[in-house]
Automatic annotation (TrEMBL):
GO molecular function: acetolactate synthase activity; flavin adenine dinucleotide binding; hydrolase activity, acting on acid carbon-carbon bonds, in ketonic substances; magnesium ion binding; thiamine pyrophosphate binding
Ranges of residues in domain Thiamine pyrophosphate enzyme central: 220-352
PROSITE patterns on file: TPP_ENZYMES
Domain Thiamine pyrophosphate enzyme TPP-binding: 418-568
Keywords, comma-separated and alphabetical: Hydrolase, Thiamine pyrophosphate
Annotated Thiamine pyrophosphate enzyme N-terminal TPP-binding domain residues: 35-130
GO BP field: inositol catabolic process; isoleucine biosynthetic process; L-valine biosynthetic process
Name under which the protein is recorded: 3D-(3,5/4)-trihydroxycyclohexane-1,2-dione hydrolase
Gene Ontology terms: cellular component: acetolactate synthase complex
Record Pfam families: TPP_enzyme_C, TPP_enzyme_M, TPP_enzyme_N
Entry's family note: Belongs to the TPP enzyme family.
């Protein structure tokens, strides 16, 4: 057996470079790069190893560990999980800063390889700088925080352990069912230890998407339910994108004239003006789709886990309707008492299309769906039109940005009120024109996520829509975008606080408290008015502040012509939201309160809970 002497860190890097993936564009590197912020836990080991291959495996320096991991997540999502990045940070706070992002990747089933530095495996200099000591268990370090938010976790205490650990990490990263973050905690001393690795361990490995055929019996059971249905609705989830099943999905719903509702992750499955695209679904969904779901006798859910926002907290769907759940993961397929149809969406939809020849739904149902679709488009037109008021609504801003976006451009967002407005109102014909992190709804994802999306799709203009609250949480990667020449267009909607939660607080009967800046504990002069344009300019971006929708549209023209990242900020109304569409969301209201508004909100809550109970 031929061997090569390498440090553990050098072996990790060489193994990563040997991993390839076959996509529609041919065989590509699996890892497009490494995000790294170096410190004493990784600079001498992994940092030195990455230096020697920087021309083949680029290392990107970020300004915040959580931010760089968000960028890696957005990259992999935009690439439909076919290519990915790795992230490394030093032992201690640098590593733990990535834990939130690991949770984002875990919830959204996105592959990222985390390589956090760790304390000394030998323990000779313990306790080292930034080491968290556990009084009862000496094997625990702060990196154990990654365990609950990783699909795969290992701590490498000997260099030869890579021989079994790295293949398992790759298995998880590329598995359509288990896909998610893999974490290898790498103690700083072990990174520098050498071992005679088999040369064959670094042979090129080409990965391909594994496609699971549906089970014969599950397929037949699903077909029985579908053939009985007269008023079905199809729900498109993110799994349609990850399976690459866009054509098969379009063919299936078009062949049988099926109305479709898209989840946050599924948006873009069909062009917005497709005859069978009813709009989005759920708590922040379109009235058209939600009305149909309340009457449907069958739901065909494709590639969705039917989270509470998609299902209206289990109270939106007709309680008498049956659910056929097409999903590659049995864990998701059995939710909501669904008839599981476990299998790859691309293959399973093809089977359904062939087996259902001759099946027809009620023409009255098709007519109703078309009427609802047309009415909903009128709502979008109205809500996104400039009213000419002093404080624009979020919907008006969405309309202006949407009109500025080209056919292959994308919008990126994550948390607050904007995801609801965007899900309802954003129109795209591009399958990747809508990029929303709403599995974890992580404030601070937006700007870093926009950077990662741009790196994955350099031909697209990437519009990042973000509220003042999320902007203030994490904005450092604006400087990174300028530094590495990855232009993003940022639109900051300043409503002076956390407007979305403020509205939710009032809906639950509470007074304005600790959400809007005017309702917070401040000095007598109040909270400062943030100059977001000046802040972005200080990090190297171009920027400007506008006051009206007309000015915003003019500024967007300048932003698109800019060679560098460009920020536009404007003040918006915190109280106006799109009232049409949407559905109840289960947010518990106190059973006992001194406030009459809370007691009334509890009565409303109990009524909705009764509907929810029928769907259990």
């Amino acid at each position: 057996m031929t061997t090569i002497k390498l440090t553990m860190a050098q072996a990790v890097v060489r193994f990563m470079m040997a991993q390839k993936v076959e996509t529609d564009n041919g065989i590509q590197p699996m890892f497009a790069g490494v995000w790294g912020i170096f410190g004493h836990g990784n600079v001498a080991g992994l940092g030195e190893a990455l230096y020697h291959v920087k021309d083949k495996l680029p290392t990107y320096r970020a300004h915040n560990e959580q931010g760089m991991a968000h960028a890696a997540i957005a990259y992999a999502k935009t690439k439909n999980r076919q290519q990915m990045m790795a992230c490394t940070a030093s032992a201690g706070p640098g590593a733990v800063n990535m834990v939130t992002a690991a949770a984002v990747a875990h919830v959204n089933r996105i592959p990222v390889l985390f390589l956090p530095g760790d304390t000394f495996a030998t323990r000779m200099p313990d306790p080292v700088l930034q080491q968290v000591e556990n009084f009862q268990d000496m094997t625990i370090t702060s990196n154990d925080c990654f365990r609950p938010v990783s699909r795969f976790f290992d701590r490498i205490t000997r260099p030869e352990q890579l021989l079994t650990s790295l293949p398992q990490a790759m298995r998880v990263l590329m598995d359509p069912i288990e896909c998610g973050p893999a974490t290898l905690a790498i103690p700083q001393d072990v990174q520098t230890m050498a071992f005679d690795y088999p040369v064959s361990f670094f042979d090129e490995k080409v990965h391909r998407l594994r496609r699971q055929e549906p089970d014969f019996y599950e397929l037949n059971d699903a077909l029985k339910l579908i053939r009985q249905a007269k008023k079905p609705v199809v729900i498109a989830g993110g799994g349609v994108h990850y399976s690459g099943a866009l054509k098969e999905f379009d063919s299936f719903v078009s062949q049988f004239q099926l109305p479709v509702g898209e989840t946050q992750a599924g948006k873009g499955t069909l062009p917005w003006d497709h005859k069978h695209n009813m709009g989005t679904i759920g708590v922040t969904g379109a009235a058209s789709t939600n009305k149909l779901c309340a009457e449907a006798d069958l739901i065909i859910a494709v590639g969705t886990r039917l989270g509470d926002f998609a299902s209206g907290s289990r109270s939106m769907i007709n309680p008498d309707a049956r659910i056929v759940s097409v999903n590659v993961a049995s864990f998701d397929a059995i939710k909501h008492k669904g008839q599981a149809l476990v299998g790859d969406a691309k293959l399973t939809l093809t089977h359904l299309s062939k087996a259902l020849q001759g099946w027809k739904i009620d023409t009255s149902w098709s007519d109703k769906a078309e009427a609802e679709r047309v009415e909903w488009q009128k709502v979008i037109d109205k809500v996104t039109t400039d009213r000419g008021t002093d404080l624009p609504s979020d919907g008006e801003v969405v309309g202006a940005v949407n009109r500025a976006a080209g056919e292959k451009d994308m919008v990126v967002c994550a948390a607050g009120g904007l995801p609801g407005e965007l899900q309802k109102l954003w129109r795209t014909r591009y399958s990747r024109g809508y990029h929303m992190e709403y599995g974890y709804s992580c404030m601070g994802y937006e700007l870093a996520g926009g950077l990662g999306a741009k790196m994955a799709s350099p031909q697209s203009e990437v519009f990042v829509m973000v509220g003042d609250g999320s902007y203030l949480m994490l904005n450092s990667e604006i400087a990174t975008s300028v530094m590495i020449g990855q232009k993003i267009i940022m639109v900051v909607l300043d409503n002076r606080g956390y407007g979305c939660i403020h509205r939710l607080q009032q809906f639950c009967g509470g007074p304005g408290f600790n959400n809007m800046l005017d309702d917070c504990l401040t000095i007598p002069e109040g909270a400062p008015k943030i100059d977001f344009a000046a802040h972005a300019k200080s990090m190297g971006a171009s920027s400007e502040k506008v006051t009206t929708i007309a000015e915003l549209e003019e500024a967007l023209v300048r932003a698109k012509a800019s060679p560098i990242s460009y920020l536009i900020t404007l003040d918006t109304d915190p109280d106006i939201t799109t009232e049409n569409g949407g559905h109840w969301w289960d947010v518990a209201v106190p059973e006992v309160s001194e406030r009459e508004k809370v007691r009334q909100a509890r009565k409303t809550y109990d009524a909705h809970k009764a509907r929810q109970f029928k769907n259990l």
